Amino acid sequence: MTLTGIEQFTVRRSSAEQSCASVLPPTGHFIGGTFLPGSSTRHIDVVDPTTEQVIASVQAGTASDVDLAVEAAVAAQKSWGATTPKERSEVLSLIANIIETNREAFEIIESANTGKPRTVAEDDVSSTIDTFRFMAGASRTLTSMAGGDYATGHTSVILREPVGVVGVITPWNYPLLMAAWKIAPILAAGNSIVLKPSEQTPLSTLKLAELVAGRIPDGILNVVTGQGRTVGQRLAEHPDVALIALTGSVVSGQAVAETAGRSVKRVHLELGGKAPVVVFPDADLRAAAAGVRNAGFWNAGQDCGAACRVLVHESVAEEFTEHLVREVGTLVVGAPGAGDDVEIGPMISRPHFERVKESLAEAKAAGLQVAIGGSALEGPGYFIEPTVISKVPAGAHIATHEIFGPVVTVESFSSTEEAITRANESPYGLSASVWTRDSSLSLSVPKQLDFGTVWVNSHLVLACEVPWGGFKGSGYGRDLSLYALDDYSRTKHVMINHGA
Ligand code: NAD
């Protein structure tokens, strides 16, 4: 097998990177349908991770900015919650159309703010549009459990109601898409929203606010920019916020859940992941390797469902690793505008870049075998080589902790039982995949895996009709599908005594 410390990856630079200046949104808070300056004079710089240049500065929101936004959301929710599913559906379809009409602006902003290749940004925007379209349709199919006569002379009716104002906190890896996964079902279920985007990637969410302003009811969608510890914290504690939904790291989820507990607020958490990829000896090894190339390195591995931890049967470990190294060696690293074949962009920020580098250094210091990649690439920008670390022993730090970069580890197992036990040993429970041609294993193994999504002979394929969410340390609550609409609704029982 070709084991390297080879310098085969370089960063392809763009000769004329498209500037995002002409499509940048206003940078105030979006409250009650208009952009407001906010109560603080402090700002947060937004950096392009490809160039390390500041591209915008947004408001560092305060608790009083959140309070103002919640007030607007409370006022707007009363009439929004009373609209029919058809009326709400029309608003969601309008949002989808607005995004579609402006898709290029969203793609430019998303690539500039995250460094993601244009193909990834295009996919993000397409999925965002589809999320709004799905929820526009799905919200009209909602029913509640049929009523009935369960006590003599009484008839029960079960009502589905909005929960009220929902606080939303989003991460930086798919800024627009993760916002859409929340906004679409939350609005569809008749709630209003105060959303805090990641302080690192607020621009596409502000762009959405700019474009829907005046075209959807004022106050149903509010955006307050700023830090988690101020804006996010206030959202989690605010007495008029009925539910707080966060997509982010486990640490942030714990902080939000702890704060929300004080006001007995409902909590919806989509947290980290460390997806095992279990490859059985009968699997199509080439297909499995190609699957990991795509699903382990999509968005430079900055994906909570990334196929980052391979567990392969010992009898085919060598052969599988050869296929994987060959596949990974074809990945092109570069700036978003450096060509349609660029698949790997930078890490989102310098601190995250340093964290990934540290994990690689630790793995090397522990004597682990770097089969390809393994190092940072020359700046500017926070680029890391696509990396495969092979022959990783059970329990190694790099294979059990979320790295959130273009790094895939390969471990081996000797029996099905061992594969299942080792896969389940993770503190995370978001997603996993199983690669086999054995029809019995293709059902018996997923049933024993403790993950919210299990793919068979596939990985990272999502659809709006099916739920996304985790078990264990990956949180609770479901995005997408009718399950998300349930999560953002509440059930009321009305019992009518007609026997008197
Ligand atoms: P992060 O936790 O650092 O930040 C996420 C959001 O939480 C940000 O808006 C941040 O400002 C806010 N926040 C941070 N501390 C807070 C606090 N104390 N109170 C309230 N809000 C707070 O996560 P990130 O680095 O932006 O994103 C990467 C993480 O997100 C990874 O762990 C990844 O696995 C996870 N993620 C999960 C999913 C999923 O669907 N399960 C999807 C995308 C990302």
Overview of this structure, please?
By secondary structure, the chain is an alpha/beta fold. It folds into two domains: 21-271 and 474-493, Aldehyde Dehydrogenase, Chain A, domain 1 (3-Layer(aba) Sandwich), CATH 3.40.605.10; 273-463, Aldehyde Dehydrogenase, Chain A, domain 2. It has 15 helices and 24 strands. The protein has helices at 63-81, 85-101, 103-114, 118-138, 175-188, 203-212, 228-237, 250-262, 285-297, 317-328, 350-365, 397-400, 416-424, 441-448, 481-487; strands at 11-12, 29-31, 34-36, 43-48, 53-59, 148-151, 154-162, 165-169, 192-196, 221-223, 243-247, 266-270, 276-279, 309-313, 333-334, 369-372, 387-390, 407-413, 428-429, 431-435, 453-456, 471-472, 475-476, 489-497. Helix 3 packs antiparallel against helix 6 and helix 7 (228-237) runs parallel beside helix 8. The longest helix is centred in the N-terminal third of the chain and has 21 residues, at 118-138. The radius of gyration is 23 Å and the shape is globular. It binds nicotinamide-adenine-dinucleotide. Nicotinamide-adenine-dinucleotide (NAD) binds next to helix 7, strand 11 and helix 8. Nicotinamide-adenine-dinucleotide is lined by residues 169-173, 178, 196, 198-199, 227-229, 232-233, 236, 246-249, 252, 255-256, 270-273, 304, 402, 404, 430, 470, 474.
